[in-house]
Every structure is written in C-alpha cells, then in structure tokens.
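Progress against Task 2.4 (sequence-to-structure conversion) is shown through the following example record, which the project officer requested during the mid-term review.
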Amino acid sequence: MSPRTTAALCRTALSATLAAAPGAWAGDPVESGKYAPLTVVIYNQNLDASRELAAYYAAERSVPLENLIGLAVPEGEVISRADYERTVRGPLRAKFDAQGWWDREEDAGGVMRPVRNTIKFAAVIYGMPLKIEATPGEPTGATDPATGEPVRAKRTLQNTDAASLCSELALLGVDLPDLSGPAPNAYFRAADAYGRPELLLASRIDGPTYEDAKRLVDDAAAIEAGGLWGTAVIDIAKLAESKGPGYGIGDDWLENGALFYHKAGIPALVDRSPAVLPSGYPLRDDVVLYFGWYTGHVTGALKDTAFRFKRGAVACHLHSFSASTLQTDTQFWVGPLLARGACGVLGNVYEPFLTMTTHFDLFNARLLGGFTLAEAAWMATPAASWMTTVVGDPLYQPFRRGVRYDMATEREHKSFRLAVRRWGGDRDALLANLERAATNLESAALREMAALHLLGEKDYPAAVAAFEKAEAAYTEPADKLRQIFHRARAMSESGDEEAAVALLRAAAGERAGTPGGTCAMALANQLDPPPPPPPAQ
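Structure tokens generated for the chain above:
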C-alpha cells in the first residue's frame, strides 16, 4: 500500500488534524429503527439467495416494500464499467426518479448532483457484484504477436476508473466529470447524523457464504438491544520504522484508537511489535474490536481455527487488497474476519493509497459516539468512487445511545466501563473500586482489565504487579499464559527487554511442544532475534 495520493485530495487527506476524542462533537445519532424509510435494499434478482436475504433484511429492519430494488446483474464479484452503467446505475437512478426520492441540480461547476435526497442508506445484498474493474485503456496501434489482439495502454493507479461497488454507489446521483482516480467525499469528518444529500451510505450484507451474510443481520439486531461489551485487540505494525515515515499515519490511527478505548473503558491488548500476534496466542473469547495492519492474508492468532470473535464484533485489517474477494475464509482479510464471526468489517478491493483508506481513528471515534456502521465508515473515508467497501448492516449501532444497562448480564465489562467513566481521572479511586468489584464478583477477568488499564497509563511497575495478581486468580492455563505475555509486554515497553525475553523464554521452556510454548518462543524471538544459521558448507 503506497502512501501516495492524488493531487485533488492531498489537502484533505493529509490534514494534520486527527479525530477528537469520542463525544467531543455535537452529533445526535438516532435509533436505527427510525432509519428504515431512509434505506434502500439492493439485490440481484437473478439469484434466489439474494432475493431471500433481501426480503429477510427488509423484514428485520422494517424497510418499506417499495424500497426493495431488484437488479438483473451478471453473477460474480467483478462487473465491467459498461455493465455497471447498464444494469446498476441506470436502473437505480430511474427508480430514484420515479419514487421522487431525490432532486438533482447543476452546481456552480455545471455538475449535476442531488440537492435533496430522502434516501440515506443502501444495503447491498449478498449476490451483488463486489467491485468494478478498470475500463481497458485506449488502443496503442500495436498488436500482441501472441494473440493478434490490439495492445491497449495500461491505466495507472492515478487514472484508473476501477472502484468498489459500495464506493461507486455512494455517488450514485453525481455526474462525475472524470471517473479517473478518487472523488472527494463531502461527508468526510462530518460530526452530525444527517449525512449529505449527494452521498448514499452504502454497505454490504455479505460474506463468504449465505449463512455468514445472514448472520450479520441477526447479530446486529441482537447486539443493539443491549450494547456491545468485550475487549479490544490493536495490532500496530510500526511500518514507519521499516518502510519509511510516510507509513507512520497508519500506526497513528491505531494508537489513537487505543487511546479512545482507554478513555471509554474498553480493555485493550495493544501489540506494538512489527509482526502480527503469532499463532497460539491465547486471546480472550470476548474480543469485540480488532484493528491492525499490514499483512496480505490473515495469519497468526486470528487465523487459528479455535479463534472466534464475540458476537457483534467490528474488525478491520488495513491492507491494499484486504477485500479482493469475500468468497474465502482463508485468503486476504475481510472474508476470514467475517467467517470468524465479525459483524462489521472494512476493506479495499484494489490499491487505494494509504491516505485514501478509511481513517481508523476517526472511524472508531464515530462508532463509539453512537453512529451507525455506515455513518461511521463514510465519515472516516476521504474518497468515494474509489476502493473502500463496507461489510455489515449499514444501520448497525454497536454503541447506540440510550441503551439501558442491565447489570445482570456482562457484569464484568459493565463494571469496568462504568468505573473508568466515573473514576478515570482519579487513579486511586478507580483501582480501589475495581479491586472491590473483582473481589465481590470473584473475577480474575476484572483484575486483568485493571492491569491493562495501568499498562495504557504507562504505569509499568504497577501493571506488572497487577498482571501477576490476575495470573494468580485465573485457573485456566491459557489465561495464566496470557498474563505472562502481558507482563512481558509491560517490561518491554518500559525498556527492560532483557527481563521480558527471559520471562518469555522461561514460559516457552515450561510449555515446550504446545502451541502456547511455540508462541512464547516466537514473542521472545521478536524482541531478541536468534543469530542466523551458519552458511552451508
């Protein structure tokens, strides 16, 4: 993924201003049920599964029947630009005109665009194309000697008209004068829930299988009733150190996300090693937020067959081709994340340039502020008619405002989040109340959460002691091993890598021949790489 961008969007995308902390803007998200009349459901009428899922989604979200739009599109994930114009854009515009959903006028530059639009969201259903391939370049006059076909000029990344279907639908009503490269997104960095008339907030109900896609609908509805509760994993790649300073912005997005979780009372494992979390890492079974980069295919702990996200999770791994296809549970990232239970995922169908991708920190800020998945994604994405695709119910609100907390469920996470919000500015009061809650609930997990909070505060000695206390409280070997890994991380971040390596190597020796032992050795080798093998004689 190149950090380059096009001149038209440089000033916006490279703005030095990062997202404010959650809750710092005057937004007023509304319950997604009120959005039903503002939503269209777009499906492939040639595919039974697409028709069935469209009807199911519309019923679950109370979308009016007249808002269901069946299109006769070619099967497959890739559609040509000509077929998109003929089978998607043209029929959709005709529908919007016939229903009186919008008014379009020429702007000062002579570009026709919506000035009124009663439709805000588009749910793109399983079976619709994923991406629009680039139009072939103009003939060069030469002939391919092998095929006899005319040789066409290659399109560059700067002038390609390829795009994700979602991103192209976002500007359905705009007569773009030039399809080459990205178009500015007028909703980028918005702080209100009302959108912009020219932008259609499109998101896919999709996945590797029909069952995966249908689960997105069920999970979103189930989680909204009581809110999303669990832990976060942030996997920072430190690419600025290995690939150059232009990549530092990706790490900054993830660091800002970690800060938001810390302030919001969401316990987070933050890994700052260049490699992804290795296979065998004993992740908790309540991961509801995952953000990382920068490998081409799912690997490490998230690829382990035993791992599965907690219901309702939002998970994203930043890579140029993370959404090249969704019809896989082992390749790239978006498909595998969905197959492992994620409910909301973002990805790129072709090379987008780093600064044209969704800004993960801004996305997290808006999501934590109560906005829907589609609102948060498009508020955080600088470009439309480009490469980003959003997968999940567009109306999904994992952190919906106004949810009444029933303390009979999710007691540990609710106790932790409420404690951080109440005593976050008073360290002693926070720790005392968390210890009291951990004792009353007999909860080792709450002690681990408190230790993670101390690590987020960079209070390394206190964090090491707290992780030791959590390890003693746990009974399962995997949970105990995770506390050892946490302690090693605290030691390493404090500058004592020697102690961290010794701790990890000891854990590896005690668990030799097990996945946990192999993982411990991998973590130790990240901090203290072994010498290369001698050259062959």
